[in-house]
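Table S2 (continued). Query chain:
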Amino acid sequence: QEQLVESGGGLVQAGGSLRLTCVSSGRPFDSDAMAWFRQAPGKEREFVAGISWSGRNTYYGDSVKGRFTISRENAKNTVYLQMNSLKPEDTAVYYCAAGPAVSSWYGDFGSWGQGTQVTVSS
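Corresponding output:
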């Protein structure tokens, strides 16, 4: 069974940067597409970014395009989310997910991490 563990969340001022890390174990990492979702209190889970198994194809939610970058290192079973120019509306719990293909719908992903809190102060 695949396990995903996120880290790197925290408190940052608006305009600042954070890098989230997700480490996978339990199954071949390079067979999965990976994605980041986020969920703020009282809101639905939102697609943030996704990356194909090879890393060649990346996808972003409209609200983060141009500010966030997803990448992966298959040799380290790790996917990253570099977040720049953070805004208070980016405040949420960020989740790492693994699935057979990149999708913006959370129901397509079978493995999830426990989440890491990102708080952006104004």
